[in-house]
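Renewal narrative, Specific Aim 1. Our central claim is that a sequence can be written position by position from structural information alone. The example that follows is taken directly from our test logs and has not been curated for this report. It begins with the structure tokens describing the chain, in the order in which they were read.
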């Protein structure tokens, strides 16, 4: 069984009562990996973001305000016993503005990321792996689109193993 087939099997083998949560959603066009590979989730994901409604940017007719099911901050998740998390194209830094006031914060976020400092709350990618590792059940799944190369070392440091990685920027991780 190749890694894609293993990923598909793990996702589709989740129980019908699985607790699936999309972080930093919603992803309006849907999860590309799931759609491209014709993988169906067994349960409807709970859509979360740090604000409700969330302003989604993209091609016209965006920006558009979209509702979420629940407010959740990726830097401090309060979930437990989750079967699977989904996250697509999480921003790399918390503040979309670029000015002299955010320059130091961006520098700290970059430093923490390069040092793989998993306790950092300045970089959403670090928080994603740290917080989901705490919230997932043993052998729970994390599907991420929009990864950077250093994300894999951070994921490993947080207790994840890679089940599947594609040529682009998507991977399925399993909590060890």
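The sequence written for that structure reads:
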């Amino acid at each position: 069984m190749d890694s894609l087939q293993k990923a598909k099997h793990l996702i589709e083998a989740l129980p019908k009562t699985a607790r699936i949560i999309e972080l930093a959603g919603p992803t309006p066009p849907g999860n590309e990996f799931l759609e491209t590979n014709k993988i169906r989730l067994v349960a409807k994901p709970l859509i979360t973001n740090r604000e409700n409604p969330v302003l989604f940017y993209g091609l016209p007719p965006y920006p558009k305000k979209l509702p979420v099911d629940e407010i959740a901050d990726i830097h401090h998740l309060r979930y437990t016993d989750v079967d699977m998390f989904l996250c697509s194209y999480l921003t790399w830094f918390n503040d979309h503005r670029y000015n002299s006031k955010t320059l130091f914060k961006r520098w700290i976020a970059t430093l923490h990321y390069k040092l793989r400092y998993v306790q950092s709350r300045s970089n959403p990618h670090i928080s994603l792996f740290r917080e989901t590792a705490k919230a997932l059940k043993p052998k729970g799944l994390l599907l991420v689109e929009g990864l950077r190369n250093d994300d894999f070392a951070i994921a490993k440091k947080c207790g994840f193993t890679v089940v599947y990685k594609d040529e682009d920027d998507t991977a399925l991780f399993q909590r060890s």
